[in-house]
Design a protein that fits this description.
By secondary structure, this protein is an alpha/beta fold. Helix content is about 35%, strand content about 20%. β2 and β3 form a beta hairpin. It is globular and about 50 Å long.
Length: about 325
């Protein structure tokens, strides 16, 4: 297979031919699904989402219940879950914000990610089920996420907390420390983002190259979802589009790892964000997987995904419980 690597400031070209054989097969199968076709324009999202019945999260897999305890509480009136492994627990605490272009609820592949994280790291994982667009906006989400972090800090030291997320949830993971700072809270220890969606405007001129090889996502429908999430505010505001943040905010970021594939429209803005953050003095590493599709770690058996989880395990360590 072609292994991932920590990219520097070089340009990484889109690729549809690289990656392990399982990755290439998975990409072909994903290309058979309607998700990309649905997002190539705005007609589908405009007909499906405004006025819908608000969605529910995917059911917790029964196998997951056999390996973890699951606690549920209301924080600021929003359902919030925390899962803890029954065996091998550590001091690490992950706050995981799920993706779904801000309009879709936590899905079954998100449970696969969370299960792999608890198994590999022994971490407790708190899952904020933030309210979605178009019913809600980032203006309601961030005060809630601040409350979630404050609750986590009741039992975890800031250095033991890792913010994680995928796609839109990856952008939330990256932006949350700026909201925490504004609330007078200490920064978390680290950030991990899978294929983060870092600029909802999709104005990066490199995006069409990646759109051409991405089997899952396209631009127009995502931009519409991002505008709903911005709620009439400038969509380039840092809490919505972290790649547009000013240097003084970028410089305050905790140590960050980004895991990104080259068959993904989010690659272009992830590169911009990485370069700007590093230039501002932040410790941001982007591990690039040639031929990998959007949020490929949601399929933990792929060779590239196993490599990602091994790297995350080393990044977090396994700090012992007291």
């Amino acid at each position: 297979m072609t292994r991932g690597y920590a990219a520097g400031t070089e340009t990484v070209e889109p690729s549809a031919k690289d990656g392990s054989r399982p990755m290439r097969i998975a990409s072909r199968l994903i290309g058979l699904l309607p998700s990309k076709r649905n997002l190539t324009g705005t007609d589908w999202v405009n007909s499906k989402y405004p006025g819908r019945t608000y969605p529910s999260m995917a059911a917790i897999p029964w196998t997951f219940r056999q390996t973890s305890t699951i606690q549920e509480k209301q924080i600021d009136g929003v359902r919030t879950l925390t899962v803890r492994p029954l065996l091998g627990g550590t001091r690490s605490h992950i706050i995981y914000t799920h993706g779904g272009i801000y309009i879709n609820e936590l899905s079954r592949p998100h449970w696969w990610i969370i299960a792999e994280l608890t198994r590999r790291t022994g971490a407790a994982v708190t899952i904020p089920l933030y309210r979605l667009a178009p019913e809600s906006t980032y203006r309601e989400a961030f005060p809630y996420l601040v409350s979630v972090y404050r609750e986590v800090l009741r039992t975890a030291a800031p250095d033991d907390v890792t913010l994680m997320g995928d796609s839109a949830g990856g952008a939330l993971a990256i932006a949350q420390p700026w909201a925490f700072r504004g609330a007078g809270l200490p920064a978390p220890g680290r950030i991990v983002a899978f294929s983060p969606w870092l600029d909802v405007t999709a104005t990066n001129p490199a995006i069409p190259q990646y759109d051409a090889v991405d089997p899952m996502l396209s631009v127009a429908g995502g931009v519409q979802a991002g505008l709903w999430w911005a709620g009439g505010d400038d969509p380039r505001t840092p809490l919505v589009s972290p790649a547009c943040a000013p240097d003084d905010l970028l410089a305050t970021m905790p140590v960050t790892r980004i895991y990104q594939g080259t068959r993904d429209v989010c690659m272009a803005d992830a590169t911009v964000f990485r370069d700007r953050a590093v230039a501002a003095g932040a410790d941001v590493t982007m591990n690039v997987y040639p031929g990998a599709f959007h949020v490929f770690p949601a399929f933990p058996r792929l060779p590239e995904s196993r490599e990602v989880y091994a790297d995350i395990t080393a990044f977090l360590g396994r700090p012992s419980l007291p």
